[in-house]
Amino acid sequence: MLNRQPGDRTLPTLITLLVIGLLLMTFDIRSEGAGVTSTLRTGAQGIVSPLQKAAAFVVNPIADAIDSMTNVASLREQNLALQGEIDELDAQLVAIQDDLALFEFYEQLYDLEATGSELGRTPAQVIGQPDAFDGALIIDKGSSDGIVVGQPVIDTSGYAVGSVLQVSPGSATIVPITVGPSGVAVSVGNQVGEVLPQVNTAEMRLELIDAQDPVFVGDRVITSSGSVRFPAGIPVGEVTADASPGNDTLSTQVRPYVEPATLRLVVVLAWPPDPITPLTPDTTTTTATTSTTVDGDGATSTTEGDG
Predict the structure, then answer these.
(1) Residue 133: which residues within 8 A CB-CB, separation 6 or more?
(2) What's the predicted TM-score (pTM) here?
């Protein structure tokens, strides 16, 4: 009698298990509401995602650096363009300031002339500033404009500047009172004296003769009637240190109202109004001569001539 072997059920059991597994997988996928394709995509994304993160960690800083370099280059170009515009605006501003200064200058000059002064005034622009080697000013007016050596110069506020040293047809050289070579006769209240330039300082030294009263900080110093360089009453500066007379003399410091290096406009005064004209080779003296002639009728006639 033949017996059945228990191993004969192995194949059917395997097939049954495979079918059950597929059914369970299908049921699980459908219960989540996703298809097979979505499930596979999710799995692939889970594998690829770490690689993408690693790539982004390496690539993103490089891309950011490239973008930053591009932005820097663009900003430099913009800065250069803006700097050019700023320079152009600065030039326009300087021109406007020059025009305003000139306008204010003519306003002040008009006010000076409106006071009734009989002194002629020639406004001029400063075209040469003083430096460490030469303290003189150069103005754009000269002999063709009526400028004469020795004429006093003031600023637009009426303060003493200096006097004309040299003249050419189109320009003139002005020596400020702060650099000499000589002093200016001045008065402080009822006392008279002079202010003298000093070396290596913008202040001047005030010396009063026959001083009877002290002077104090802030006292006003003006040109006196004894000045041969300026009309009387031109403001010069103010006292910067109190001082009392000793042995009828008094000495102290004065700060001039004008700083020559900052001047852009000045006024040349036609003073004195009637300067003495020296005798020059062009000046000639004429002498009248007479001669007497007799004509044929015995009549005489007299003629005069220049000799």
Answers:
(1) none
(2) 0.55
